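Question (not urgent): is this output format expected?
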Amino acid sequence: MIILTIRTDKPEAELGLFEDNKPLAQVSWEAHYQLAETIHSKIEDMLKSRHKTWHDIEAIACYRGPGSFTGLRIGISVGNALAYSQNVPIVGTTGSNWQTNAIEALLNGTNEQTILPEYGAPAHITAAKK
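Got this back:
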């Protein structure tokens, strides 16, 4: 099973590509405010480096938090959209062993279908300006 892993809770974003639990490729970059602009090209570059395409992705694992509101929202939105469009399972986990735990869950048949971020605190939403 080819698994894409996504972690976007901090300024340095991380992607991984695994075949079952064997790492094939990993990339991290200072995405910061350019995360939405760079994440798709980074995924595509990583896939190409291993002679894979978007259609080779068979499962997705995302770090669900806690962390940056915008970073988590972008990474998890990308994960959910890819899982839905490719009709593949998706799992979200937290903690220091998030990748291992998510991959194990996917290999055991878990599919959350849609994952939600855990920000670690309530979102600070400002009142609408008149």
